[in-house]
Amino acid sequence: MKDKEEALNNWLNMIRKSWTWGRLTDKEQAKFLTLLENVLHRSKHPITGNYYHRWEVLQVMYESFLEGCGYDGMNWRGK
Known about the structure:
about 60% helix; mainly alpha; about 0% strand
């Protein structure tokens, strides 16, 4: 069983290696991290549950942010 307290750090390490993260501008990356920090500090336990539940909530947040940046699939910001 994975430690639920490690979900955030593991998830952040994963997205920083993802191709979508690499296609965000520096400004967009900073904006997402600011938004994430705001959510995490909004209440004492804003993201709860087991490791997998926390991972899923973080993933939904990231996918929503990508949608706001115009993400439209594998060819998004293609080179």
